[in-house]
Here is the input.
Amino acid sequence: MDGYWNRPEKTAETVRDGWLYTDDLGYRDEDWFFYHVDRKDDMIVTSGHNVYPAEVENVLYEHEAVQAAAVIGCSDEYRGRIVAAFIELHGSVDADPETLREELDEFCRDRLAAYKVPRRYEFRELPKTDVGKISRNDLKEEVES
Here is the structure.
């Protein structure tokens, strides 16, 4: 990549000493397979722990009621940030929201470390980009305003 069109500052920030810095986070296993975990700017630091939204979303997608999910960090006086899950339900799901929150909470507790379990669940339509991808940035803006 030569750089961003008409954006020299962004190019200097992203391309350094011939290396492309994307803010993607991942790891390599003992067999040298590489795995993408999430993006650095999406990571949630809650009570000193790092939580990757994609990991929590993958667990939520395993639940039969969840059609789409987006996980973001929301401000919290005690923890700094909390894990918050915004969920679109399948159209056929007709459950009491409080019962569904309790069910999803138990579901997540069985599959995630305690600090990764969402402290907030909200059922709603999720904002999407022009190509239909869930927009965490738009969701963050909506929640913060």
